[in-house]
Amino acid sequence: MMQSSHINRTNNTYTIAFIGFGEAAQAFVSKMDRSRVQRVRAFDLKLLGAEAATVQTTCAQYEVEACATLAEALYGADIVWSLVTADQAHVAAHAAALELMPDAWFFDCNSCAPHTKQDSAALIEQAGGRYVDIAVMSPVLPARNRTPLLLSGPHADDASVLLNTLAMNASVEPGPVGTSSAVKMVRSIMVKGLEALFAECTLAGRLAGVDQQVFASLEASNPGFNWTERAAYNLERMTLHGERRAAEMEEVCSFLSHLGLPERMSESTVRWQRRLAQSGVQASADDYTAPTDALLKYFNLPNDQEITR
């Protein structure tokens, strides 16, 4: 049930709660203007498992209170950030709706299909909260608090003012909840799809012994794109965050299906993102060759010359 409000409005300070305390939450809180912030709490599912000590240490590093339950994290919070994986976003909204303070802001920054955001918004609004659809429009590193945030929904204008007082980088995309997420979903077809294409191209080139020639040819045709550097960066992103990216692309597939479009390319992107994440390979953003060779070994290539589904 929704708690009675005791938000400290007299000195205009805020209590902030993070649902999920991964890379994005850490990046935001690390440089956020906290002069008007009274306290910051976080709840992450990893606090319930073997990684609890690591998450607690990370929270302490950023002067964030690690909470054992979601209810503890949201108690007294008038700003709630939801930064979980796409497949857990609606679950998080459902759970948060039971604990929200009256008029609390709920910033849903997860990469979900517009209809998923709309379903979550209904839960938060029915609970008396103020739901804002937020699309994170670039990697959170190195921009951190200056990462572009695109807001939509009926509370977007007021939310952008609030966020910018915290030294965030918010702008409004006019329209109902789901508008900014539609921008993000369609953008992700290209961004995450390029990552998958890079992986397929790099692995094939390495396996055939022509990777350097291919990247030299691509650079000659598209100078300044820095193909070898992009190959290394994309492999690092996929091996480190592929599960999260796969969950996002499943939302993209859902969105495309909702639009009546075939989603064959995005379905393949899901598979590539997930397979690289599950490989256990630790890639470096500085060099694509070593992780590519490790991935070929993981896929049992070149012995069978085939990456099976």
Notes on the protein architecture:
- The structure is a single chain.
- This protein is globular.
- Helix 2 links the parallel strand 2 and strand 3.
- Helix 7 packs across helix 9 and helix 9 packs across helix 10.
- An 8-stranded mixed beta sheet has the order 3-2-1-4-5-6-7-8, with helices on both faces.
- The N and C termini lie far apart (45 Å).
- The protein is built from 11 helices and 8 strands.
- 50% of the residues lie in helices and 13% in strands.
- The chain folds into 2 domains: 164 residues, NAD(P)-binding Rossmann-like Domain (Rossmann fold), CATH 3.40.50.720; 119 residues, N-(1-d-carboxylethyl)-l-norvaline Dehydrogenase, domain 2.
- The N terminus is likely disordered.
- The longest helix has 33 residues.
- With 309 residues, the chain is an alpha/beta fold.
CATH architecture of the largest domain: 3-Layer(aba) Sandwich
What number of domains?
Answer: 2
How many whole angstroms does the radius of gyration measure?
21 Å
The CATH class of the largest domain is identified as Alpha Beta
- The structural class is alpha/beta
Mean pLDDT: 94
Global morphology:
globular
Number of helices: 11
Number of strands: 8
Numbering strands along the chain, what is their spatial order in the largest sheet?
A: 3-2-1-4-5-6-7-8
Poorly predicted regions: 1-10
Quick one: biggest sheet? 8 strands, mixed
CATH-assigned homologous superfamily of the largest domain: NAD(P)-binding Rossmann-like Domain
CATH topology of the largest domain: Rossmann fold
- How far apart the termini lie comes to 45 Å
State the helical fraction: 40-55%
H/E series? EHEHEHEHEHEEHEHHHHH
Strand proportion: 5-15%
